[in-house]
Amino acid sequence: MATALKKTTEPKPKEAITLLRADHKLVSTLFEEYEKTRSNSKKKALVSQICTELSVHAQIEEEIFYPAVKQALKDKELIPEATVEHATLKDLIAQVEGVEPDGEMFDAKIKVMSEYVKHHVKEEQNEIFPKAKHTNLNMVELGAQLAERKAELLAERSL
To answer: Do 24 and 82 meet the contact criterion of CB atoms below 8 Å apart?
Structure first.
């Protein structure tokens, strides 16, 4: 009697741009949920998740994706601009992370953050990603590096 061997295979690594686009979609969905909710406890939970997702996403881009793309494109404009945008986002995150949602000013900060993220995502997806795809970068290898670092950062944040 033959026994079937269970195949334990690692999930196929995502291409870097696919992984980053999935992050963008997730954060967009979280912002939409925030807009719809009136519950302060739900708002606080959503803001916590948004801040975590944005912080980790920005860090993996800055540590891995941006340097690789900057070098491959010999870019002196797109990546530095995206990095400056990250700095502004980090400032907004610092203003709302761990803070009790306390009315209109808090909501205004989340709205501004949402609009800022939309602008940043649009530039990445319309300018940086298409150019990055046309380089000789191995996007699957880059994606594996991004996924591994993202998992490390998320694990650190959950301690």
So the answer is: no
In a domain, 2, yes or no: no
Segment 76-102, tens digit of pLDDT: 999 999 999 999 999 999 999 999 998
Task: Determine, yes or no, domain membership for 86.
Answer: yes
Q: Show the tokens assigned to 132.
A: 């990055």
CB contact at 8 A, 96 and 106: yes
- Distance, CA of 36 to CA of 21 (rounded, Å): 23
**6 within some domain:** no
Q: What's the mean pLDDT in 102-119? A: 94
Residue spans of alpha helices (H) in the chain: 16-36, 40-60, 66-73, 78-96, 104-123, 129-133, 139-157
Contact 120, 89 (CB under 8 A): yes
The pLDDT tens digits of the residues spanning 6-48 come to 445 556 678 999 999 999 999 999 999 999 999 999 999 999 9
